[in-house]
Automatic annotation (TrEMBL):
Official protein name in the record: Cyclase family protein
Single GO term (MF): arylformamidase activity
Organism taxonomic ancestry: Eukaryota, Viridiplantae, Streptophyta, Embryophyta, Tracheophyta
Family stated for the protein in its record: Belongs to the Cyclase 1 superfamily.
Signal sequence range: 1-21
Amino acid sequence: MEVAPLLLLPLLLLLPPAAVAAGGESAAHPGYAHGTEEACGVAVLPAPERREEFDGGRIVDISHYYRADMPAWESAEGSGEFLRLARSMRNGSDIANFSELRLTAHSGTHVDAPGHVFEHYYDAGFDVDTLDLAVLNGPALLVDVPRDKNITADVMASLHIPKGVRRVLFRTLNTDRKLMWKKEFDTSYVGFMKDGAQWLVDNTDIKLVGRS
Ligand SMILES: *[C@@H]1O[C@H](CO)[C@@H](O)[C@H](O)[C@H]1NC(C)=O
Ligand SMILES: *[C@@H]1O[C@H](CO)[C@@H](O)[C@H](O)[C@H]1NC(C)=O
Ligand SMILES: *[C@@H]1O[C@H](CO)[C@@H](O)[C@H](O)[C@H]1NC(C)=O
């Protein structure tokens, strides 16, 4: 059985650190509260460490932070309050805090499983666990695509992506238009067209596609 050759991974723009958790007036969850201020001599709690190194390399995390006003598929209202502290040690729970997440698997920066768009793969159980980690991890080529077109076969041919490149991230007009910062879902986003995908399969060594 053959796995879908392409994985569509909408990778999104690099965030300025100031944009982090800027989504709401109040942090919806303690995990999203930033920093702990010293008040009246009260001890300052240690700040959680975000690890940005792995195996001697630097991780460049270009994922979007989840926000209530992050766009969601065909929603005018964004993602909504997706995270809450369902039980708190401060309030009745004697053993632990329990956070609850409610959001679709296609929220924000995500990877699509073969079963997402092909019913026979879905029925056969091709979920994200079946993706090859060796394909998902490693050097990638960042490619700026023309801003006035979707990614078609002609666009693909014009990019002259060298043979041997296995992973590409396409930076598109979506990033310029800051679509991930618009609460209302915008159907005019730039995407990878069927003939562009076919061209890629027929003419390149690319196994992983990300799109911003
Ligand atoms: C549990 O949640 C409370 C907020 O109600 C928070 O102040 C506390 O730090 C949390 N405890 C742990 C261990 O996460
Ligand atoms: C504490 O728990 C009660 C009962 O579940 C709830 O009604 C109340 O809003 C909670 N208070 C806080 C501060 O979380
Ligand atoms: C890409 O295709 C979508 C859907 O057909 C369309 O709305 C959009 O205008 C196209 N974008 C460009 C840059 O041509």
